Amino acid sequence: MPADSESSSPESTLPPPLTPLPADHWDTVFGPEPELARPGRFFGGMFQDFLGGRELAWRLFLRNIKAQYRQTFLGWFWAFAPIIVTTATFVFLQRRNILNFDEGPVPYPVYLFAGMILWQTFYEAVLAPIRQVTQAKNMLAKIHFPREALILAGFYETLFNAGLRLLLWVPAALYLRHDPFAIGWLFFPGFFALIGLGIGIGVLLVPLAALYQDVEKGLPVLLNLGLFLTPVLYPMGDEPARLFFLLNPATAILDTARSGLLGVAPALPLAAAVWTLVVIGALAAGWILFRLGLPHIISRMPAS
Prior knowledge:
Blueprint: H1 2-7, H2 10-13, H3 39-52, H4 54-70, H5 77-95, H6 108-135, H7 137-142, H8 148-175, H9 187-211, H10 213-228, H11 241-246, H12 249-262, H13 269-299
């Protein structure tokens, strides 16, 4: 039986010859030299991975969006539910004189609805980087890929959901007898600065959240509390409340974006410009911390 003899021969049982693996396959090795000792190489690698991760980020975004609404009966409604429920609740309380707010240049329901659209966007922007890294823990431990793709995917997802809510703004504003197309140019820098502020906070918290699940579970509680510490549900009052709100970075940026959406003059343009510069610095610091800290966290992740 020649076939059996060939299959049982010593030569046929030898493993195939070993081939060298690419450098990207190997785990990260931490040496005594700090990564920032060569800043040109470090920052060059950051931008290289940012550009190289765009396609993967898009694929992750599409996967997450499909998974987010695949097993829900009401589907896209859940993107609007927090805004609709909160707006309806506070408008009811205001009209029943349980809560008394001074109306500004636009009616209170319009002011509240616009603020809730922007606050929900900020809320998701903060959580987006943390959720992306948490969901990709197994992939991070096993596969080498540009880690910036996770942050980009979170940005795409936040932008997509915000776009859905802005589509809802048109019929809602018409129902509330407000011109939905009276949008000023300040809306766009304020809107993207608000997303940048949320992403920056989230990226700064990623190393801690990747090690401790308490961060991801407790952060929504703090953000819901922040809704009452930011003039979203009600206008800013006089001193000292106004001074307190100025210390909140989301206040001036959200006010600028909302004023642009409503087509009115912003109340805090100078503070918004200052906080926007802070946002840019926070994004840069968060990116560097993310780049430096994530490899150490990945080395402590169990490869399940």
